[in-house]
Amino acid sequence: MFTVHRKEIEWGGRKLVLETGKIARQANGAVLVTYGDTTVLCTAVAAKAPKPGVDFFPLTVNYQEKAFAAGKIPGGFFKREGRPTEKETLVSRLIDRPIRPLFADGFRNETQVVCTVLSHDLENDPDIVAMVGASAALTISGIPFLGPIAAARVGYKNGQYILNPTRDEVGDSDLDLVVAGTTEGVLMVESEAKELTEEVMLGAVMFGHTNFQPVINLIIDLAEEAAKEPWDLPEPAYDRKALKARLRETVGAAVEAAYTETVKQSRYEKVGAAKAKALETLAEEFDAQSIGFEFKELEADILRGAVLKTGRRIDGRDTKTVRPIVSEVGVLPRAHGSALFTRGETQALVVTTLGTSQDEQIIDALEGEYREHFMLHYNFPPYSVGEAGRMGSPGRREIGHGKLAWRAIHPLLPKKEDFPYTLRVVSEVTESNGSSSMATVCGTSLSLMDAGAPLIRPVAGIAMGLIKEDHGFAVLSDILGDEDHLGDMDFKVAGTEVGVTALQMDIKITSITEEIMKIALGQAKDGRLHILGEMSKALTGAREGVNENAPRITVINIPKEKIRDVIGSGGKVIREIVEQTGAKIDIEDDGTVKVSAVDQKKSDAAIEWIKGIVAEPEMNVVYTGKVVKVVDFGAFVNFLGSRDGLVHISELAQQRVGKVSDVVSQGDSVKVKVIGFDDRGKVKLSMKQVDQATGEDLTKKAE
């Protein structure tokens, strides 16, 4: 019934298995990939005909994690998987980025790649497995995909690179880098690093590229046995050479003039006018979709040719100069920390809010539930590019850019025990003309320091571009939006004056060489150091203390056996403390107590209350307490928080007392001295001996 093809190799110390022919046989391509005990089913399907009127490649990649893969039942009321998690969105992008440039030119058929995690061994992350599987499924599908690609994760510890580190090894590593590419070169890089040098980062990229070559050969071996017949690509419905010539003749000069305009909106108006003229003039000879496609090619030729020929860019800069920078902090009076970072026509308003551990994000992942105390949210409203558009929940691009900035900042955050705040940073991109994610990195660094978060060092980021032709190439620092759209590379580097903390690279051509990456990293370092210098004009380090509008968090430790006393039955005691003092209280299992309040007096009151609860009464020490009950044989006094003791009638006063109520009443504040403990540990108190005592050394006010 099944014709199964199976290939396997040892890779990074574990067995990698590719299998096709048994599951999902109606898909154009389907491969079951297993690495260790992690298994992902990857399928590829494309429509038989292109969508009419579509002038782009409609590719969708969906990575999905099933709870059963880790033996879990989803949480929530519906008990089924819902909207994609942040990780599923990020991995979908991770798969999409290296495969998208490898589809044949002119292919416009709707294409969908679906990667489903069926088993997770909690050691080998399914993202690399899914990338390999997506490549294999496309390679055997017959769809015009010019792969295969492969991918690998690279760690770095004690001066040694680690191929495909396990989850535990990644946690101990100085680097978490994912690299993907073909036999010829690298197509995509995503990473987080602990201030590593450019040489170490480049070495990691090349280490990964070298070590995933056996996987490419494995996919080729599978395709030689199981690949379907390749699809025939339809010839263009028009004479491309003739249309190119007519466009040059009709609007070439106008487009060249437009790309000398340094202001983005003015440039776009002139380009738009040239395109409208082309559509009107050539409408009888060619269809609008063909004109639009070739017009974009004309734009690219003019921009790229000018840079390679003259070394000058759209806005007049050379290839290495960074746009003018203005950094401002404290721009929002009520925010805990804020910064406005402007670089050319790109601007980010970045705001930091400090919270308590109650504000941490709870993440329910296949690997288990955990808490995240640093969140970075990136928003890209349509007005930032002068457009009116739909606004809603964040898309894949916004989630991806936010995570890149998160990775850049994360290695420099103070330890939680040194700065026990939950950090939420929101970046509102208010203007955009290239590299808004790197503006977010710079703004986040300034905003956190403005809030008093003691970053180890300031962080800056820069986006590099590439124009590569047969006769040469140029690496561009701090690229504009047009240079991103019409260029060959988007290469983002973030870091400190010491080293790199994040590296992200996307290539739009088949691959780039080690030489180009080395030049880009060196040029990016120079640009990063320049940007850090400009940022230092606003703030050189974290402010002393947190903003006056932020909560003050005080950390104290109590004995673990006293936790239940502070919480009380059903949480009664801790609720009372919170209600009466107005402070927030978080108690951890090890006895760490975090007390927070904007008003320090409220925090102090809560701390004194807690200390009173956990303190042990000491012999011969005098405390201030409150009479809570009067009985015939004495009075019960509450002291040291919730602790009660008995003042026997014989210990109420110097003279003989006939009736307890003659001396004290319920609610009275009294001074009592600890004179002993009974067999059950109950405290014996005396008011009489306080009257006899002399000297301040015997008196200790109740805490």
Automatic annotation (TrEMBL):
Keywords from the UniProt entry: Cytoplasm, Magnesium, Metal-binding, Nucleotidyltransferase, RNA-binding, Transferase
Segments forming domain S1 motif: 620-688
Catalytic reactions on record: RNA(n+1) + phosphate = RNA(n) + a ribonucleoside 5'-diphosphate
GO molecular function: polyribonucleotide nucleotidyltransferase activity
Domain of life: Bacteria
Cofactor(s) for this UniProt protein: Mg(2+)
Compartment(s) of residence: Cytoplasm
Binding site for Mg(2+): 484, 490
Gene3D superfamilies the UniProt entry points to: GHMP Kinase, N-terminal domain, K Homology domain, type 1, Nucleic acid-binding proteins
Family statement drawn from the similarity comment of this UniProt entry: Belongs to the polyribonucleotide nucleotidyltransferase family.
Protein name from the UniProt record: Polyribonucleotide nucleotidyltransferase
Source species: Azospirillum melinis
Organism phylogeny: Bacteria, Pseudomonadati, Pseudomonadota, Alphaproteobacteria, Rhodospirillales
